[in-house]
Amino acid sequence: MTNPSSQVxxxxxxxxxxxxxxxxxxxxxxxxxxxSEIVVAIGRNTTKNYMFDLDERxxxxxxxxxxxxxVRVAVIEGLLVDFCRQQDARVIVKGVRFGSDFDYELQMSxxxxxxxxxxxxxxxxxxxxxxxxxxxxxxVAYNGGxxxxxxxxxxxxxxLAKVGR
Length: 165
Ligand code: PNS
What we know:
Layout: E1 10-15, H1 22-34, E2 37-42, H2 54-64, E3 71-75, H3 80-86, E4 91-96, H4 99-116, E5 119-124, H5 134-142, H6 153-162
The protein binds 4'-phosphopantetheine.
The site of 4'-phosphopantetheine has 12 residues, from β1 and α4.
């Protein structure tokens, strides 16, 4: 399929964002430079226990992307592929940090394509904060460490409040 440069291509960056990190923001910002519009899509991964409830994750994501004009935040209700169809998005964008991410993303991208025909674009993680994860940062914060280099000020404050500091 051809894609004249005048054509709007909306992409979805899905994730749990519990909380959003500078690694996520690197992927979102780079995707926003390639695609016309980005929808940061907050999903519920049924295998995870979240630190932040959905409203908190929405608020922290909205704050973090506030300076990116072609990016907005929405919630995935049900399947990601149905959300993409509702949003008229043609592409899913995910970041890949290392081999185990690739194995997981390959499986999901193939399944999503079989379910709906939607394509997934995998972006290699950036070098500076690319290999961090929300779960590792939560672990560091719970144990008294400083996560401020890896998240926005608002996220850092929210995490400190959660861990009682
Ligand atoms: O950051 P995460 O936890 O890896 O994000 C996973 C998420 C939310 C993107 C994924 O669980 C998802 O897409 N959930 C929506 C339900 C769905 O479509 N599941 C099938 C994926 S093949």
